[in-house]
Amino acid sequence: MKTEAIEPFFATLAAANPSPRSELEYASVFELLAAVLLSAQATDVGVNKATPALFALAPTPQKMVDLGVARVTELIRTIGLFRTKARNLVATSQILVMQHGGLVPRSREALEALPGVGRKTANVVLNVAFGEPTMAVDTHVFRVGNRTGLAPGRNPAEVEAQLLRRVPPRYAVDAHHWLILHGRYVCQARAPRCQACAVRQWCDHGASTMPAGDNDGPA
Question: What residues have CB less than 8 Å from 85, skipping those under 6 apart?
Answer without folding.
Answer: 37, 38, 40, 76, 79, 116
